[in-house]
Write a structure and sequence with these properties.
single chain, 118 residues, alpha+beta, NE0471 N-terminal domain-like, 4 helices, 6 strands, globular
């Protein structure tokens, strides 16, 4: 059973997607975070251990939010990426796990020798 959002609001100036859910949770999800954790095969890969470390997305923004049925949205990023479908569960999980996901991402960037340009 999917938990449904009650509000989805894009704050383009701050590059943050705010999502509230019917369970009362509310998340502020930076566009960079959503882009580097896209549920697309391009980012997650096609099998175990095939995910791609996405870099250089510090200034990425969302250009459009397109509904997909009653279960997801497609986020269209200004870097041309638009293949990830963000189901309600994916958005909720990204919000709930944001801190640990982000710390893991920063560790992987450091391990690859990449310095974020903030």
């Amino acid at each position: 059973m999917s938990i449904r959002p009650t509000e989805i609001k894009l704050h383009q100036a701050s590059r943050v997607l705010e999502v509230a859910f019917e369970d009362g949770s509310r998340f502020q999800l930076p566009c960079e975070y959503l882009r580097v954790f896209s549920p697309s095969a391009e980012v997650r890969g096609h099998g175990p251990n095939t995910a791609t470390l996405v870099t250089g997305k510090e200034k990425v923004n969302i250009e459009a939010i397109e509904p997909v049925g009653n279960y997801a949205v497609k986020l269209v990023f200004d870097d041309g990426h638009s293949t990830g479908l963000y189901s309600w569960n994916v958005l909720h999980d990204l919000g709930a796990d944001q801190e640990s996901n982000w710390q893991d991402y920063l560790r992987r960037l450091a391990g690859a020798g990449y310095q974020r340009q903030v």
